[in-house]
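Fill in residues.
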């Protein structure tokens, strides 16, 4: 059974719309950072929701469709590499969380956010390993990951030399070797690759 412990605290106070938000793409050398914020119905839960990294790609894709279909509100916000380089990744993550939550079509009564090392200008509860502990954050985690993975697969067609479809922009040895060999493309984060490549 999915974990509703955090949601239950707010439901017991008579609150109805509990948003969950999670981020993906903080660490890669290429591609955007993405946050999904959503509000799910908290009855008739979708089976199998957990931290997206613990699921197979096939299972994530199946859950993505179910979550998107059932969500009361769902918002995805991303910042591109150029912006990440300009303001740094931590600030970029803050911008994405803040806007994803603020842009929800239904105003949440409470917000649960994965992590504990960011402070946002919105009222929220931070849950360490929230994608494992909270059903709502778990749903957001899956949507954010599938969305970003699909984006990187599209980039792989535009920039086929880097193998984005395999590593999704993360710093694998193959990826780093390729940057050293041919240099970066438009979606590489310059501040992330400066230790091994300089223009």
């Amino acid at each position: 059974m999915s974990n509703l412990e955090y949601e239950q605290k707010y439901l017991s106070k008579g609150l109805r719309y509990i948003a969950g938000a999670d981020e993906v793409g903080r660490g890669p050398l290429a591609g955007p950072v993405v946050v999904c914020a959503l509000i799910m119905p908290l009855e008739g839960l979708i089976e199998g929701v957990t931290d997206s990294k613990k699921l197979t790609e096939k299972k994530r894709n199946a859950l993505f469709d179910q979550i998107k279909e059932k969500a009361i509100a769902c918002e995805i916000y991303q910042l591109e590499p150029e912006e990440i380089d300009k303001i740094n990744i931590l600030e970029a993550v803050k911008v994405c969380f803040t806007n994803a939550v603020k842009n929800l079509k239904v105003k949440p009564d409470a917000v649960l956010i994965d992590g504990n090392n960011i402070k946002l200008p919105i009222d929220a509860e931070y849950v360490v390993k929230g994608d494992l502990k909270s059903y709502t954050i778990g749903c957001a985690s899956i949507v954010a990951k599938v969305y970003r993975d699909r984006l990187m697969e599209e980039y792989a067609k535009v920039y086929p030399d880097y193998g984005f479809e395999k590593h999704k922009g993360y710093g694998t040895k193959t990826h780093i070797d390729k940057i050293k060999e041919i240099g970066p493309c438009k979606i590489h984060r310059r501040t992330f690759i400066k230790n091994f490549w300089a223009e």
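The first helix runs from residue 5 to 11.
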